[in-house]
Design brief:
single chain; 253 residues; two-stranded antiparallel sheet; 57% helix
């Protein structure tokens, strides 16, 4: 049994990856940080508008006086509605606040969110924010074990804690020789995603589960590619080498 504050995702190898879910506290820490940044942007826009309106030098002379505050209002509107969707789209589910809090938005299948999903979940902030201070969102998160607000249900997303990537020794040469021969073209997109999902989330797994998962995935890759691995190479190093070779092969196609 997995704890209620974890998301269990079944891989094609029928192994559950366990991801720690972000609670209300960490999500509001991220929201407070992002809101502070938005306020700073609003203040900068306001100051720029105040300075631009009376001076109107250079190119600003060609702009009608009444359009300057209209542009400022449009910019503020874009910041309010586009801030979260923009950053979550380009930073794979993170905003500056989420990065500061160490959390990330992902699909409930474990995959990264798309731009459309980022837009969809953030349009629902208008409802989640009712009647203020995210009242609807808080109630919704309290009523489900995955701490999902309405926007998460619409986009099919969850918010998880992101552990720091393990610091590994510089063994590029050793890992490059971990795979003596393999046909990278035989690695399917599903297998490569499986390998990279494991490498990304392995620090969240118990040591026994991690070892078993790596061994099963490595065995599958050996069967599908015909790779010849050195006996002294660990499963993790083997999978890292396979993923790197597959990415390098795709890059030059």
């Amino acid at each position: 049994m997995y704890p209620a504050d974890h998301l269990s995702i079944d891989t094609p190898e029928q192994i559950a990856l366990q991801l720690p879910l972000a609670g209300i506290g960490s999500r509001f820490l991220a929201l407070a940080f992002d809101t502070l940044l938005q306020v700073v942007i609003y203040v900068v826009l306001g100051i720029a508008t105040i300075i631009a309106m009376p001076s109107r030098t250079g190119l600003l002379r060609r702009i009608p006086f009444s359009l300057i505050p209209a542009f400022a209002i449009l910019a503020a509107f874009c910041v309010y509605w586009g801030y979260f969707a923009f950053f979550e789209s380009i930073w794979s589910g993170q905003t500056p606040g989420k990065r500061h809090a160490g959390i990330r938005v992902i699909k409930d299948s474990g995959r990264p969110i798309t731009a459309l999903e980022a837009i969809g979940r953030n349009l629902m902030r208008a409802i989640d924010g009712i009647p203020g201070v995210y009242g609807v969102g808080i109630i919704c998160m309290m009523l489900n074990q995955q701490h999902r607000r309405l926007g998460d249900y619409v986009a099919g997303t969850v918010v998880v804690h992101e552990k720091k990537t393990e610091k590994l020794a510089n063994t590029s040469a050793a890992r490059a020789s971990a795979v003596n021969s393999a046909d990278e073209r035989q690695i399917t997109a599903e297998e490569l995603m499986l390998v990279e999902t494991y490498l990304l989330r392995r620090s969240d797994l118990d040591l026994a589960v991690r070892s078993e998962t790596a061994a099963k995935i490595a065995a599958r890759i050996v069967r599908s590619t015909g790779a010849q691995r050195q006996a002294s190479v660990s499963d993790d190093d083997f999978l890292e080498a396979v993923a790197r070779k597959a990415r390098d092969f795709a890059r030059f196609q």
